[in-house]
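Mods, move this if it's the wrong board.
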Amino acid sequence: MNVAVPGRTRNETVIIAAPAPAPEKPPWLGEDLDMASPETLIALVDSIWPRKQPRESLRHHGLKWLLSYLVRHSGRTWQEKWVASGFNDGSRKIRELTTGNFRLDGELGHSLMLLCCLRVIRPSLAAFKINSFYRYHEHFAQAQKDPDLDRFLALVEEQDTSGHFKRCARMDVAAALTTQGIRFADLTAEAFLHYAIATREGGWGRGYETHVGYLAWRVMSESGHFSAQVPATLRAAMRAPAQTPAELVDKYAITRFEIRDVLIAYLTRRSHDIDYGTLRDLAADICGRFWAGLQQINPDQSNFAISQEDYEIWRAAVSVRKDGKPRLHVEAVLTNVRAFYLDIQGWAIEEPERWAHWVAPCPIADRATRTRGKIARRAKERMDARIRLLQPALPAFVAAATERKDHFHELLATAGEASKDQIITVGTKQYQRLFAEGDARHLRFHGTANVRVMDLSTNCKINVTFTEDAAFWQWAAVETLRHTGLRCDELLDLSQLSICQYIRPNGEVVALLVVAPSKTDRERVIPMSPELFHVIATIIRRLTRNRESVPLATRFNRSERITSEPLPFLFQRTIGQRTEVFNAGTLRTALAKLSDAIAIEHPELAGTRFTPHDFRRLLATDLVNNGLPIHIGAALLGHLDIQTTHGYVTVFREDVVRHYQKHLADRRAARPPREYKAPTEAEWAEFEEHFDKRKVELGNCGRPYATPCEHEHACIRCPMLHVDPRMLQRLDEIQEDLTARRELAETRGWLGELEGIDLTLKFLGDKRTAVQARSGNGAAHLGIPTVPKS
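Not the wrong board. Structure tokens:
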């Protein structure tokens, strides 16, 4: 059933697994078969599944022997006799019976399968799974002649997945209908969830138990068989929902009921202003570390007026973790507890009848939490030191990640065409193609086999299919993070719908990336650089390589414990039958593995491990250090307060202040009295003209709107220059001219000129490399949604 639990702080549907109620009359095909004669059943079997001799005769003997065996047991109906036989508990297979005829022994399992398909016998899930019926779903569909079931089977066949998983989906539904004795129309979400959970717990999946029911659930959800309130995926239905404040408090065994009620009321009121993750941490601090700790010190404590002696004991205890190590963030615990006391004091003025009885002096002095500023400064110093270490290594790290992605892409293509044990060379490495029995089995089941090789330099076996996929998504995450500075959740929330465009009157298209509200609950738009556009296009091209559009996937928000509706997310992957978005933990682990893998090939990068948030700090530092006004940087990063951006930028504070004050001076000089008025036609024309003024000989200048050229039009050296691929020939001409000038300067001894020309040649080479990387990857349809004109 769908249950709305009272007191939940988030809108969510809880699906409680329960088998479907047994129908008054089993869904037989035609007449009552509960007490039908063996001859009637055999004739019905022959009419549904006709066979030729001698197989038909053997089946007749098998059915007669099995039915005669069941007749010897007590019971009025065939089902009662089946239960009395002892086979329904799933401890024995039907093939363990011996008839004295070897060929007939093998027919017993098939005979039992046909009786189950006819609903003459309704086996328990354990009995059904232990007998391992061959192609049961095909025989079951023939016997039922259920139009609803036939429609479901047709929808399964249309799914974009392997034939093995389609067979599994059909088998899952047939097994659930058989063991619960219902028609397809009566198969509810609760009943199918019960089947999936019981199969996992019974361990009858034979390696498939981790994927039981995923595809079948998705097809039933998308086809409207389940109600709209049911989660779109089986995994979402199986996840534990966000706990209520009462459930959070009860985790810590509060002995006094009156204290428990106060803590529940406090968390309930706070839950309206904070997300679930913060609420859970707050409950852990106040209920777990504070009150549960005080219970152990003074079991008779009945209110919040804590004696100084008990407080000192608790303060010493909370400073040490359970493993004996010092607690690093004890000040955060003290702050939450102090806020708890102050909140009750403030609420007592508004609602004295509810809170006044619990007002007490706060045992934590104000000075005890003032050290948080000092701790924050130390953390900022550590982070600045980390960014100074990572920033010089970033270009080499990005180049190594790109090289690794390209290497495994080439290896996958080459090894996929190689024969068993063939030696192949990719780059400077040699590999040997492997093909084992497991690969052959995967080929039979799924139509394709994973490509595996052995690295002959290390004698390590590599699953190239998995490694190439991991290398691609590692590269995609690194490139997207470093060009956008997105938070981890914002990156994972990107979908095909996040891509939009602004078309200027002259027809020029400006690509934009819409970032969904995240930490600050505020949407923002980021202009897409050519490099970022290339990355997004490559991701979409990969997701649509075998299909027409980006597949729909769901994303689980761990902070709110809510699963999203199916959307065309960009950072998604398919595991077995389910398609879901990467989670934050997987992303952090992937970057850590990438750092370790790169360090093996590039020892100079050993010890440099990047996290998703490092790229956000690196981008902020790079933007401000290259002259971008800090308020624009704050807008791009999604910071509501410019002081937050200060904390992200690894620069001297006076540099930040100077940038900001210069910006304020320029703005006051330009438009002092009418700062936020609606733009006039002339002002809008000036805005449009800005994009025209950014056009230079070699391409486009990427400097922000209303900012002057900071590099005195030395475009080749400027990082804001985006070279048009059509101007590669012009770069060659400029290089030839610079080379001739260098030879002349070297002949004349103009050392200062030599230094400047060498620097310009270096920048020119970087520009050529960037243009070639962008232009050599083909075009991709981004699928930008169009809004119909009203």
